[in-house]
Amino acid sequence: MDARDFGKVAVLFGGRSAEREVSLNSGSRVLGALQRQGVDAHAFDPAARRLDELTTFDRAFIALHGRYGEDGTIQGALELMGIPYTGSGVMASALGMDKWRSKLLWRAAGVSIPDYLLLDRASDFSAVAAELGLPLFVKPACEGSSIGISKVTHARDLAAAYATAARYDSLVIAERAILGGEYTVAILGEQALPIIKIEPGNDFYDYEAKYLRDDTSYHCPCDLPENRENELRAQAVEAFRVLGGRGWGRVDFLIDEAVPPDRGRAYFLEVNTSPGMTDHSLVPMAARAAGIGYDELVLRVLALATLG
Questions:
Q1: Structural domain tally of the chain?
Q2: pTM score, two decimals?
């Protein structure tokens, strides 16, 4: 599409979630990329403006992360206003944000996931540790960017980890740790981009490792044999489709350390339906490995904007 064919484009970023700062970074970069290519793009922060002001726009590029932007709420508003938008629809966005319900669907569809349990104040934390084993991860079900996540190596620390996660969400998950390596697959249209292997410099891939530290290592190519990588990319696309994903996104998974990674089982963690677009973000990194520059990536994502 010619840049003028997109019409007036709202780049939605900022918002009211715990990931606001990351979204401001993503959105400002997306906005700059669109404007450099001649698109009539404008910043739009839903935390500062009324949503009905969007009726003057022809398309929306969603660069919001977390609640109210990645969970189906803004998608529903855009559907009602008839404004095509980037990324997944209402249902897939809501499911992708909800780690528990996405696990239920994945398990029903035969997608491999780590064992997990739901936690509440009355949980027997010693029994949880005995059932899932240690270490394990405790996380809020409906937050992104590793916000509120704790790695628990002693059963006595489970109660504190639960309290940390419960500050962000009433629904908290304890998940068995799979320690063989963390990987991610970016999806653009019908294409799965090259897999990235992530090696954080600290204990696990938390918020600091994602956005603040410079000692996280990213391997793309991911050093898996080509046939194994192709197999995992196909599995990621299927996991994305099971939740109803469309347009673009990112699927994260782990590989069991018990066997060599070229033969280890993949365990899928979550789908990101509005991935980060910062200078530390993984989708632009995978796109570069596929020969797609940042500006081209942004334009291709915008071209996939749709309704329904």
A1: 3
A2: 0.91
